[in-house]
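Our preliminary data section would be incomplete without showing what the modeling component actually yields. Below, a chain of 368 amino acids is followed by its predicted structure, encoded as tokens that our downstream tools consume directly.
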Amino acid sequence: MKVQGRPMRTIWLEPDGQAVGIIDQTRLPHAFVTARLGTLEEAAHAIRAMRVRGAPLIGATAAYGVWLALREDASDAALARAREVLGATRPTAVNLHWALEQMRQLLEPLPVSERPSAAKQRAAELCDEDVAINRAMGGHGLKLLEAAWERKGRQGRLEVLTHCNAGWLATVDWGTALSPIYLAHDAGLPVHVWVDETRPRNQGAGLTAWELGQHGVPHTVIADNVGGHLMQHGQVDLCLVGTDRTTAHGDVANKIGTYLKALAAKDNGVPFYVALPSPTIDWSLRDGVREIPIEQRDGTELSDVTGRLASGEVATVRVTPEGSASANYAFDVTPARLVTALITERGVCPATEEGLRSLFPERAGRAS
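Predicted structure:
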């Protein structure tokens, strides 16, 4: 995708080949800042502090983190430590552990001397694979948007509601839920996006709105609780969100508040689609509500808000009373029964085990 007209990805190998470059997403939308990651600890911190975020990008960063660790020490102990350090950064997104397992399977059988170069190459391959997956997913999702536009009689705007950030900032490029939207916009469909602010970290207001604006896609930022009202009044044609982990039965874990949008969509007959790359599927899980670990983050993300003052200064202020406790659940689980369909790189399927198995027969029934 593009930033100020210049093509770029969210993660890249630096020109000197000795470090990884990232967009520091904690600085958006008020400042566009890139950062250099040169050690395992810096990669782990980038994931934990959400300088990089989104399940696919977390996985890509973890893969490069393994390479950064093995540059210093490529022993079995160092590989195990890298996987442990990176695996402990974020609990909900399964792509993190999927990427680390990909690296382990490749590197453990290799001689120690060959591991650093192999790790570097495999991390780059995982990034390229993510781009290809997201582009393919966008093509399948585009067909759903085109069908919705036809059902609407090709009149007015095609109104899409999304929650959190599932665009190219959450992946290496293209995005998951936003990939079909970018393709629809480029194809000339008059798509308009309702962007949930997505408290408490405001990934919708700060990140989704920013990247949609960079691409020229019409959008409107709304408070998280507006979606149901819009659906009641026929102002949403479909919902389109991403997911950080999907069970074999089609339950999806996404940013907190997604479940409520799915309930509102069901009540109002609005299609609710979830875009997911296959590495997001956790084939070992059956019941998302009971089995998917839900990350709880620092309460200051809820009690404090960062924004830009009229002077241009970026400041953080507290919005809750001193002494009030904050519970900051980062994700919730939307049961498969509320999901109209799943959009993957291999096509669209029902949110059922049978649907997923039909697209991924080689992985069904196996642990991720």
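The domain at 2-128 is CATH 1.20.120.420 (Four Helix Bundle (Hemerythrin (Met), subunit A)). The chain has two domains: 2-128, 137-359. Preliminary results of this kind motivate Aim 1 of the renewal.
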